[in-house]
């Protein structure tokens, strides 16, 4: 019986359910509370009533109706808004989650369901030995993706799932606080408990990571490729609308997993969301590099990104002969030991270069000289009602503009036309076998995009002009330090494409134990027979046969980054004032409005020209203002507008990173740029 004095004028009963591990224990409790009782007091009163001795430190109160955690234990019930009709759940904050990694491997580990997703992903990456967690996020598997229409669907079986890597009992995933320094610049060496030798720096970037060396190698090296049958059963987007559905499930980084309806033992996808891979270091990033490679590989195999036949064969050669074969060989096991440089020695070397100041004459030369290109190129302008007009002109590239003249002698006068490339789209139009080296320029104009093609004579000319165009589109000139590396990267990719048929290589393609259908998309599997594919992949292999494993992966990633559609995430939107739907492509430095029917870009807006952006949460409309009084507004139809808002803010946040920051992240700045005010 409860005495009348206990029924104070302000007291009331609060219903709490306990998510108890012991099934026989009482799970529902009624607590007599007052509005001025703080959350910590409620938890204390509840634990006293439970009468079960156990560690309750990971437990917290979850408000089911409001879908929120009550984590501020000093707040009173009145301040939280909790009243007698509230139903609270006393449950653990860390729960088991199944994560499917980019390499299709599933890991099972404990994750904080009460932390915001940004923090949860940081803890997950710490467990998996992946640096730069800000580049990744969690994605819900696409449930409404249209299934492929096949007559054999009724009899088809689900592909057999592989073994799950269980990390549930690891220290880092059990809710214990991590080491004070998430990223250590000094990299304190960790020693193998059995042999006593220093463990590889690749394995021990995070000193408290639970990964054993064997588990780390599982994530750092590619597993055997799936069968062609399994590949055929996987969902492949056919249109831009299909691709837009792939990006609809990104979780809100500013809210917790529980707040977004994720339950214990659910499966989510861990993916690289932002395509700006900062400071890739083979010495420390074995897992990270492999997972980026795997995400790129599956994007190409499933045709989530388009590439030419020539490029597909290069990707196939890098997969078939280096990543797949070397990963299974003993050579891969020792790659981290090859030519490892002592960290102190490397630091002293860097310091010496810094103190010496490098070559000052080159620096002065870069400041005083304005680089320019001048050469004979052919100009191609597509015409709707006639053949393309191809004419040779004398071109001069200076700053971020291209001018062309009738001939070299007239270059001192006024140009026929001057093209400002700042903010334009630059698309390679190359076929090395056919000696075709073209640059497609989509230049923004008032009523859309002006399409212009430049035709070069050879690889070297193409690399110089292509690199200049790419930098100019970003508002940079050839004086920028990234120009020469960009030229070398383009030449390197062209060299991989420029293979010659080797009679020895293709004399017996069956002698190589491989299934070429596993390394190319279905489009090419249908186009060529297996022997033809094997022979063509062997041709492409001639230029990549001497690469070590890590270089092969990095070359694969670089080739992926050079594709025109790289880094674009698509969403179906309706622009303000428009009567039809369009596709919006979100990239690391720009937004692109794309015609949903033809796939042609209509307009490009650069982040560098953006003044501000905001969201009207009532009508779910994103509004963006750019320089020169340009403003746009749109509603998102294929996903929540918060996802696009977070994409824009996330890319701007990542652009502020630098190596001088000691690799610490300003999490508050991230949430200011991405969180919004709903």
From TrEMBL:
Record domain PH: where: 378-474
Gene Ontology MF: a single term: integrin binding
Keyword vocabulary terms for this entry: Cell adhesion, Cell junction, Cell projection
Disordered as annotated region, ranges: 141-161
Main location: other
Alphabetized InterPro entries for the sequence: Band_41_domain, FERM_2, FERM_central, FERM_CS, Kindlin/fermitin, Kindlin_2_N, PH-like_dom_sf, PH_domain
One GO term (biological process): integrin-mediated signaling pathway
UniProt cross-references to SUPFAM superfamilies, sorted A to Z: PH domain-like, Second domain of FERM
Subcellular location: Cell junction; Cell projection
Top-level taxon: Eukaryota
Cited PANTHER family: FERMITIN 2-RELATED, FERMITIN FAMILY HOMOLOG 1
Entry's family note: Belongs to the kindlin family.
Name this protein carries in UniProt: FERM1 protein
């Amino acid at each position: 019986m409860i005495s009348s004095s206990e029924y104070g004028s302000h007291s009331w009963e609060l219903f709490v359910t306990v998510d108890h591990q012991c099934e026989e224990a009482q799970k529902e409790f009624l607590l007599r509370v007052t509005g001025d009782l703080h959350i910590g007091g409620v938890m204390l009163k509840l634990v006293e009533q439970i009468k079960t001795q156990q560690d309750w430190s990971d437990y917290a109160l979850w408000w089911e109706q409001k879908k929120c955690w009550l984590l501020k234990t000093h707040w009173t019930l009145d301040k939280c808004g909790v009243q007698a009709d509230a139903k609270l759940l006393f449950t653990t904050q860390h729960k088991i989650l199944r994560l499917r990694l980019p390499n299709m491997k599933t890991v099972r580990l404990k994750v904080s369901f009460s932390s915001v997703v940004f923090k949860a992903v940081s803890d997950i990456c710490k467990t998996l030995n992946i640096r730069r967690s800000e580049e990744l996020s969690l994605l819900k598997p696409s449930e409404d993706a249209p299934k492929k229409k096949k007559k054999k669907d009724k009899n088809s079986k689900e592909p057999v799932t592989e073994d799950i890597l269980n990390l549930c009992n690891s220290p880092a995933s059990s809710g214990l606080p991590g080491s004070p320094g998430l990223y250590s610049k000094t990299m304190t060496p960790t020693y193998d408990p059995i042999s006593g030798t220093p463990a590889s720096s690749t394995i021990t970037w995070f000193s408290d990571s639970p990964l054993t060396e064997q588990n780390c190698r599982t994530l750092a090296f590619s597993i055997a490729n799936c069968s062609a049958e399994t590949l055929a059963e996987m969902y492949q987007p056919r249109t831009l609308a299909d691709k837009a559905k792939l990006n609809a499930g990104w979780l809100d980084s500013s809210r917790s997993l529980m707040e977004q309806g994720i339950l214990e033992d659910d499966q989510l996808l861990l993916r690289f969301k932002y395509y700006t891979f900062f400071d890739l270091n083979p010495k420390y990033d074995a897992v990270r590099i492999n997972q980026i490679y795997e995400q790129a590989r599956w994007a190409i195999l499933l045709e989530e990104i388009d590439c030419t036949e020539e490029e597909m064969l290069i990707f196939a050669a890098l997969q078939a002969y280096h990543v797949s074969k070397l990963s299974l060989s003993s050579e891969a096991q020792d790659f981290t030991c090859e030519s490892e440089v002592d960290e102190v020695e490397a630091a002293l070397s860097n310091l010496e270069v810094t103190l010496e100041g490098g070559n000052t004459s080159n620096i002065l030369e870069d400041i005083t000289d304005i680089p320019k290109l001048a050469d004979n190129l052919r100009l191609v302008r597509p015409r709707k009602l006639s053949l393309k007009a191809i004419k040779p002109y004398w071109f001069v590239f200076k700053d971020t503009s291209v001018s062309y003249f009738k001939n070299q002698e007239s270059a001192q006068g006024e140009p026929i036309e001057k093209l400002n490339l700042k903010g334009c789209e630059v698309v390679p139009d190359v076929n090395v076998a056919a000696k075709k080296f073209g640059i497609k320029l989509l230049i923004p104009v008032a009523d859309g995009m002006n399409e212009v093609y430049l035709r070069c004579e050879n690889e070297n000319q193409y690399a110089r002009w292509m690199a200049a165009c790419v930098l100019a589109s970003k508002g940079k000139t050839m004086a920028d330090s990234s120009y020469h590396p960009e030229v070398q990267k383009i030449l390197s990719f062209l060299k991989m494409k420029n293979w010659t048929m080797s009679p020895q290589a293709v004399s017996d393609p069956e002698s190589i134990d491989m299934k070429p259908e596993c390394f190319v998309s279905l489009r090419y599997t249908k186009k060529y027979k297996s022997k033809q594919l094997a022979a063509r992949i062997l041709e492409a292999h001639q230029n990549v046969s001497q690469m070590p494993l890590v270089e092969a992966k990095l070359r694969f990633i670089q080739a992926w980054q050079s594709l025109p559609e790289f880094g674009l995430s698509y969403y179906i939107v309706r622009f303000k004032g428009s009567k039809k739907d369009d596709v919006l492509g979100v990239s690391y430095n720009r937004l692109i409005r794309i015609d949903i029917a033809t796939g042609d870009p209509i307009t490009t807006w650069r982040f560098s020209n953006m003044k501000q952006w905001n969201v009207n949460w009532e009508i779910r409309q994103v509004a963006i203002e750019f320089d020169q009084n340009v403003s746009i507004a749109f509603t998102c139809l294929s996903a929540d507008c918060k996802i696009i808002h977070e994409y824009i803010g996330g890319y701007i946040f990542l652009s502020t990173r630098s190596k001088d920051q000691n690799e610490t992240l300003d999490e508050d700045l991230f949430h200011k740029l991405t969180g919004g005010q709903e």
